[in-house]
Amino acid sequence: MIVRSRPGLLTLFFVLKGSVILRTWPQLFAVGLLSVIVVAAHVQAPQIVPGVNPAPLTLIGIALSVFLSFRNNACYDRWWEARKLWGQIIQSARDIARQTAVLDERRSETTPERREILTAIIGFAHASVGQLRQKTLARQAGEPALFAEPADRILHAVALQVGRLLRQDRLRSVEALGLNDSLSQLTQALVGCERLSNTPLPFAYTLLLHRTAYLFCFLLPFGLADMLGWATPLAAMLVAYTFFGLDALGEELEEPFGMLPNSLPISAFATMIEIHLRSAMGETDLPPVPVPTDYVLT
Predict the structure, then answer these.
(1) How far is the C-alpha of 271 from the C-alpha of 298, rounded, in Å?
(2) What does the alpha-carbon distance between residue 226 and residue 78 come to, in Å, rounded to a whole number?
(3) Which residues make Cβ contacts (< 8 Å) with residue 176, sequence separation at least 6?
(4) pTM for the whole thing?
(5) What is the tens place of the pLDDT at every residue in 214-231?
(6) Which of 16, 150, 166, 248 could hold 176 in an S-S bridge, CB 3.0 to 4.6 Å?
């Protein structure tokens, strides 16, 4: 995820990191080159490349804009829901750190049982990151996803540990109930993340949008050549930057667990969970707080 302060008005025009121009420049170059060819042909041989009424292109552009807006809203909803689910994971992990404090009551150091539970929750957070990102990247590459230790199995082991502590009278029923409720919330959040990871937007949306955007941007120079002349390449590239950029941004938001600049920094989230839980166990040798690298937090 891009993490940086908002640049100044002038600097904002030249920022590359986090923009989609690095992904769309080949399309923009192709549109600009085609525009130059169309304008030159129209100037040299207007009988072969005549001026075209831009009204139909205007209607196509309006329809394309509406469709792009619909798709990008759907992609952003996926991204925001994923962020809320990871917020739930962070909250539940901190709840467990607080709920297990009763195991250290009247003790000067963290009990092995509490350390075992909190270490397992740390493992769950990191396992969830690996599981979700492997699924996303494997699906993009068309390969099966493989996991070392499923995150839900870790939660199952923690639930068994809570049951043993309850039978040993180390936990009261209400305390065990609260822990199990927090474990259930972790499970619900993980299932929600898996649902997002396993269910992309219908491919027909992407296919239709790509076809329409390319068709519109490659036809646009024919409609502008007679009206704008040699300013056509600039105008056509500006429109293409908007449409291709929104398309590329939608693709990044559609995969909230990926490794693209605008994907969620779930690895950083897991590290923050580790820092908080290890601190709750009284440890001082903690992992460093995640910081962006070249404005990108992963």
Answers:
(1) 11
(2) 43
(3) 162, 163, 165, 166
(4) 0.86
(5) 889 998 898 888 888 889
(6) 166
